[in-house]
């Protein structure tokens, strides 16, 4: 029973959630997929003690998503994983979820464990968890996780620009389903709405939009990270 463990024990909750997802969905077992995900998770966590490493699982979910929770697991839905053409694409997704752990964002779930454990079925849980992430993390923490993810990818020796190619996949998927809003945001003519020189009206628009969607628009997320990558490169060259 869910009540048989301490709801404040993140590791125990993580194992319980993993077991429930395993009951309701198959985990990918194809050699090519396992080899890729193991290669990426090992490379990204090269400097972490074995006991602190997270494990990536690929459940066959209809949702196009990735998420993590308390404990030691990161989940990338098969629907998302199959769209990733390169290790770099997978690396950024995994690194973003690692970043939520590194930045201690998972602490925000402490008061929600009892509600989450009563959700039946993997798809329902994943959908609810994704919605809860957006509510608890907010756009600022998601942006922090994006930047930290890029740092992790670069530290692991990945090409930063190739990692950011994952946003082309996000955009292609969103456009296929007609979600122009998540691609462009409130201003279709701007892909850099976090620019310090943007007018206050633009900043107010994007502030309100982010709180509705939980993230920056896809093109703005990508542009923010391209700007961040350029700053890192310039700093490295000047040293």
Written overview of the protein:
It contains 11 helices and 3 strands. The chain has helices at residues 10-24, 31-44, 78-81, 87-102, 113-116, 122-155, 160-163, 166-176, 180-184, 200-213, 218-238, and strands spanning 55-57, 66-68, 73-76. A 3-stranded mixed sheet has the order 1-3-2, sandwiched between helices. Strand 2 and strand 3 form a beta hairpin. Helix 2 packs across helix 4 and helix 6 (122-155) packs parallel to helix 11. The chain is globular and about 50 Å long. The model has no long low-confidence stretch (mean pLDDT 82).
Would you kindly provide a brief summary of this structure?
The protein is mainly alpha-helical and 239 residues long. The chain has helices at 10-24, 31-44, 78-81, 87-102, 113-116, 122-155, 160-163, 166-176, 180-184, 200-213, 218-238, and strands at residues 55-57, 66-68, 73-76.
Keywords:
3-stranded mixed sheet; 239 residues; mainly alpha
Number of distinct helices = 11
- Computed Rg: 18 Å
Query: In whole angstroms, how far apart are the ends?
Result: 57 Å
Order of helices and strands: HHEEEHHHHHHHHH
Helix percent band = 55-70%
Could you give a short account of the major beta sheet? 3 strands, mixed
Mean pLDDT: 82
